[in-house]
Write a structure and sequence with these properties.
One of its GO terms (biological process) is lipopolysaccharide biosynthetic process. GO terms for molecular function: glycosyltransferase activity. This is Glycosyltransferase. InterPro entries: Glyco_trans_1. Keywords: Transferase. This protein is an alpha/beta fold. The chain has two domains: 186 residues, Glycogen Phosphorylase B (Rossmann fold); 172 residues, 3-Layer(aba) Sandwich (Rossmann fold). It contains 15 helices and 13 strands. Helix 7 links the parallel strand 8 and strand 9. The longest helix has 14 residues. It is elongated, with a radius of gyration of 21 Å.
Length: 373
């Protein structure tokens, strides 16, 4: 029996979505008890509008964990161990949560010394500065029997740590979102685009490390000479929005569609259906749930050459890959993609990845490895 401590819906975001999908897939293989969060981030660390989904009744996890209330951590361990699990599985993505997770693992093992602990590491090191990040992560992983890594980048980061934890490398599975009922032309009309527009999409939280400034720099050269290209930037801004908008060439500002908002699954499915190219110009990356979604919708992506992004894509076969922090190379690849009409070829070649990166394969390999501990 697996106890799974993570953030689940109705909390929103990539980790909650991942945990929800993994819980459902694991439940087909074995008994799983989900334990969720009472609180997630303090307002100081969360600049967004809301941490929970609106109009969501999807609350199946027992909400027990408070990451910044130390008096709560021992109680959480005791609640989890009442179920007498064989494994304690948890999701890790930021050192802010490391002290609480460590205490839960430590006390759980005191209650049952043969308990096996398994951490799914979405990140090993955060993309932004955080004090003592390496120290906090190492102390947590020292209480973790098996660390599950989702990309080459997290594997590389893990190997730089001093920890006794075993590890296995898996992958970020592909989500199967519900496809829109409307067709491409109807969706383009809904979002204010024309049938012949060439829509370049950036999708997801807008943070400094995600390179939207590099994309704008490239588009400032592309747009004056290519009237059909229309940039579409959708996601909550966690950086200086006015600074980014001021970077856009005034002569082409009216060609942009910018939506500063949380993206629901329904909206994401519509955007990935109506667009011609997803651009992820990340300056650094562990992996990307947005890219996984794009693969499901057969939408080709232009990504920067980071191990966490590019390990499943081959340049000009099932994706486009450019150098990080290089607006000229990004510009060249956007133009080449449309000039050479690569969408149909790349889209077709994404199809085999759907089976290769399935939730079924992820869950079965995870359970098999856990049982060998």
């Amino acid at each position: 029996m697996i106890s799974f401590l993570s953030v689940f819906p109705p909390y929103r975001g990539g980790i909650a979505t991942f945990s929800d999908s993994l819980y459902r897939e694991l439940s087909l293989l074995t008994k799983v008890r989900p334990f969720g969060f009472k609180k997630l981030y303090p307002s100081l660390l969360f600049p967004g509008t809301s941490q929970k989904l609106e109009k969501s009744n999807n609350t199946y996890a027992l909400e027990v964990f408070h990451p910044y209330q130390p008096f709560n951590w021992r109680q959480v361990a005791e609640q989890i161990m009442e179920e007498n699990p064989d494994y304690l599985l948890y999701s890790y993505w930021h050192p802010f949560f490391a002290p609480g997770f460590r205490k839960v693992l430590q006390h759980s093992k005191k209650i049952n010394p043969v308990l096996k602990t398994v951490g799914i590491a979405h990140n090993i090191m955060p993309h932004e500065y955080f004090p003592l990040k390496k120290y906090l992560t190492e102390r947590l992983l020292d209480k973790t029997d098996l660390t599950v890594l989702l990309s080459e980048q997290t594997e590389s980061d893990f190997k730089e740590l001093h920890t006794e934890s075993q590890y296995m490398k898996l992958f970020h599975p592909i989500y199967e979102l519900e496809r829109p009922e409307a067709d491409v032309d109807q969706l383009r009309t809904k979002y204010g685009f024309h049938k012949d527009d060439q829509i370049v999409l950036f999708l997801g939280l807008v943070r400094d490390y995600k390179g939207v400034d590099i994309l704008i720099e490239a588009l400032n050269e592309i747009l004056p000479k290519r009237e059909r290209i229309k940039p579409l930037i959708v996601g909550e801004f966690y950086t200086d929005k006015s600074k980014l908008l001021d970077q856009i060439d005034g002569q082409v500002k009216d060609r942009y569609t910018i939506r500063d908002e949380f993206v629901s699954d329904k909206t994401m499915a519509e955007l990935l259906t109506l667009s011609d190219l997803l651009v992820l110009p990340y300056k650094e990356a562990s992996q990307s749930g947005v890219l996984a979604n794009a693969i499901y919708f057969n939408l080709p992506a232009l990504i920067t050459d980071h191990p966490g992004l590019s390990e499943h894509l081959t340049h000009r076969h099932n994706g486009m890959i450019c150098r990080p922090n290089d607006a000229q190379d990004l510009r060249y690849n956007i133009e080449a993609y449309f000039d050479e009409q690569l969408k149909e070829k790349l889209s077709r070649n994404l199809e085999p990845l759907k089976e290769e990166l399935s939730w079924e394969k992820f869950a079965s390999r995870l359970v098999e490895r856990m049982q060998s501990l």
